[in-house]
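Fill in residues.
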């Protein structure tokens, strides 16, 4: 059972909760941290049921998403401390969007959905933190869907990538055939190929067969 009050105060959604309430949760909710080694076996699979509020307490996760049409795959990383897909805990489709692997040794904390609903939601600060988080996610995604006019293929490609990796930082990877990427942004295969080669020459990306790695998605 967790006996580290300072650790709880650093976790998303728990910041700002008064010490009395947080210590009470620590004592009564039996919050256990799982320590897991780095592995190529998935900890969570895309489309698994999201039945708990899940925290990455320490370490780094590698995550992968396959599009519903099978055309592309995205890969990115998640560093601690982080809450994992909190927007999938409730709603119409409470399932995970990504498959997660432990890139390093990790510590994970899972809190059952019933505990969140019956205990933690009684805290006004927790409710406000959760509402702010969900509102921010919703607003970012709504902004990404607004119609935009772009004059160049580069602008269209950057916009497309920003929609694929809305909350990512650092290195990401997109697996997709060049002709499919060209169709997504309304350009020719040749134009997209020339653009990606220019990005590689500038050191922004590394091209591979049927995929490319972006070294810093935010910088791009």
């Amino acid at each position: 059972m967790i006996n580290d009050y300072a650790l709880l105060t650093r976790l998303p959604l728990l910041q700002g909760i008064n010490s009395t309430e947080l210590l009470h949760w620590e004592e009564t909710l039996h919050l256990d941290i799982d320590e897991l080694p780095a592995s190529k076996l998935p900890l969570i699979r895309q489309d698994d049921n999201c039945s708990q509020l899940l925290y990455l307490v320490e370490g780094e996760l590698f995550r992968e998403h396959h599009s519903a049409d099978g055309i592309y795959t995205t890969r990115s990383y998640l560093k601690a401390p982080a809450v994992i897909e909190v927007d999938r805990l409730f709603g119409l489709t409470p399932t995970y969007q990504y498959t997660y692997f432990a890139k390093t040794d990790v510590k994970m904390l899972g809190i059952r959905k019933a505990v969140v609903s019956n205990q933690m939601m009684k805290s006004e600060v927790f409710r406000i933190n959760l509402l702010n988080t969900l509102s921010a996610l919703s607003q970012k995604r709504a902004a990404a869907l607004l119609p935009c006019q772009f004059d160049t293929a580069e602008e269209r490609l950057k916009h497309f990538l920003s929609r694929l990796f809305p909350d990512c930082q650092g290195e990401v990877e997109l697996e997709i055939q060049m002709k499919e990427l060209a169709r997504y942004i309304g350009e020719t295969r040749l134009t997209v190929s020339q653009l990606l080669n220019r990005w590689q020459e500038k050191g922004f990306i590394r091209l591979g067969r049927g995929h490319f790695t972006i070294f810093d998605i935010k910088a791009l």
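Residues 124-145 form the longest helix (22 residues).
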